[in-house]
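Hi L., both proteins are below.
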Amino acid sequence: MIDGVSDGAIDGVVLKRLREQDRALVKVARKIRVLGTLGWPPEHEATFLASVRAGAPALPVIDTPPADLSEHKTALHDLRVGLDTGHPAGAFLDRTAASYLEAAEMLERAGTPAFTEIACAVYGAPDEPIHPGSPTHLDAASHFIRVTEGCAPPVTDGGDMNAEEAAAWLRERLGDHFLPALPVELGEGMAPLATAGSKRVRLRADARFSAVQLAQLLEHEALVHTATKRNGRAQPLLTSLGLSSPRTTCAQEGLATLAEMITDTMDLHRLRRIALRILAVDAGLEGADFIEVFQLFREAGQSESESYHSAARIFRGGDVRGGVVFTKDVVYLKGMLSTHTFLLKAMQEGRRDAPLRLFAGRMTLGDALALEPLFEAGLMAPPITAPDWVFNQECLAAYLAWTAFNDRIQLHCVSLEDFRDF
């Protein structure tokens, strides 16, 4: 039994108050935009790459003034005072409000060492263990780079399809999952190749795309990030499950990256890209400047354009001279490994609803457990949109079990010669 649910009857007063608090949180949280605030204008790419090609690389001149979010922080503090944290919904709202307060503090300190300190608290740091007793993020990233060295062909810009063809490919597949349909549009002057939000997917009009890139965009961005945002906004009680709160980043990116693995859309370039970003975050923390981090990506085989964008991800909100960086890219491997373990343990313990519930909105793995009483009471709705692999639980369990066992193989103890008698 939970507050607001007794003898099968739902306390309307409690639910009315929770809905009002939920709407208040959504209203203020939407004004605290982490990635939108920290993003770099697209014109800086051409300027920087021109300096590289001229043989005299020059640090980008980026102006990211610290934000003044005092009004929004006050609203969040006031909201938290009135929350009933003894109720699962009230506790969720409190955790989410606290996450946005932390994000606001971080944005107000852009360009300073305090920015990185808060980013490490929110997203983690390369030298931290992925979980107690495990290797660090840096160890894991170094492992993936080492074991894939020489496996992948050189990275090239572009792909087989132009933007119009890519949009048609996506529209056909998105139509099987989203009602109403998720529009796919072309955008001029975009920095990334593609973006996916709750209302549309945008592709850069002058870009070319490979089938692998589009499959990754479908499985990672649309069928995880877009789906969970839309499902969260459609919740009858907690529409704040549609927010991109920083505290949910690890689980979100973990679920999305694991989805790529499960659907065979994760290729070597993508896996190495994720690992390289962690190495680059560590280099930036140790004092490497933007040019040095750019060169790190170039030497690893990335194109000039991709190397620029990879380095820009790490220095947004930081200091291009080094030492002050944005550590968000640390979460991908941690998220993937922890989500894998969570799903396997949940299915092992007979909690077969857990995988689907992760798609009911944007939440942490802990939220999925803490909100169970709301699902059971009918106050949380199942997801409207979810990828096919979530429903095929026998295959999902088999995949998770096999990969968990495969982790025990020590590749450094094996050579091809060992297989001559097999």
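That was the first. Here is the second:
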Amino acid sequence: MKVGIDLLWLKVGKVGGTESYARNLLDGFYEFADENSCSFVLFLAQDNVDTFDKYFAKSTFRKVVLPIKSENVVARIFAENFVLDRYAKNEGIDLMFVPVYSKPLMKNRRIPYVITIHDLQALHYPEYFSKLKNLWLRFAWRRCATTAEKIVAISNFVKDDIIKMLHIDPNKIEVIYNPVSGLDKFVDFDELRKKYKIQERGYYYTVCSMLPHKNLKTLLYVIKKIKDQPLDIPKKLVISGIGGKSETEIKNLIDELGIADEVVITGFISNEERNTLYKNAKIFLFPSIFEGFGMPPVEAMMLGTPVITTKKASLYEVTKGKAFYVDDPYNIDEWFMCISELNSWTRPFNIVAFEEYDIRTIYKEYIKLFEVTVRNDI
């Protein structure tokens, strides 16, 4: 079976969790695929191809580079809809897998498509997008979900949302959780100590964009409350991730609250830096109210750092009830009390194992789905 994977959309360092998902998935394919039963053709753009070089050391992988750049959204959408399928046909692809909500308008009938829907954010938060982007997303989601042979939903929350919002047959939707890997490499903490002026176990950590549903403002008010209390607990918050719609507002609020010395914004960082910040944080805080999966709290728990998060959307589902939770994501006092309580704990926190997110487990689920889809399409 020859599987094509569309990666034209991947803007390196700019698409957050979807990039981590795609690369973790490829790591599983790379490690466990048997060239006698399955091989992969990666369809790449000129400005992201170099970041996938490691996969081509194995004969199970080859690349096809289209003459476009992922940064050029108009050119990329045109290529995906009117050109990609022709390339797939020329490569003798048995199945096309698109790790996002995309699928060609001009499609070869012989090639079945499997797509992934990570969430339906624009249907819940249309204010994040322009009118044109909203129209496109609504059209693309519904059309791709309707015409794809199979849909991967990354949580039961997302599956239920697809059924409810897009009215899709539940039998078309397969829930396969995100693979979580890449947690075994670190940088020297001393490097980060100097860079961000932090101490081991002397800061709280979060990984998120600055979109409103990430609820980052609440954490800033919590840090302000902690700063104003005569308590011997960490008062510093480190924030990693790409920017977002509220970036200017967030930075203004930091200044207004007088917590500029307590808040560090790292921007996009390497996995090795992120892992080190996870591992050495006092507590990982994740106040989001809308996630299709939510990898950061899972990653933090897998590195042995206690996590406080919400029960909204998929978060309770994917953390398996093993984190600490606030009932009201916007309640500053509740966050403060939970943080204070965890700071007073003297016993160590254990590493949490999530076998269901192991890349080998996820690899097997994807290959099974691909094989069934190809068989049913013959």
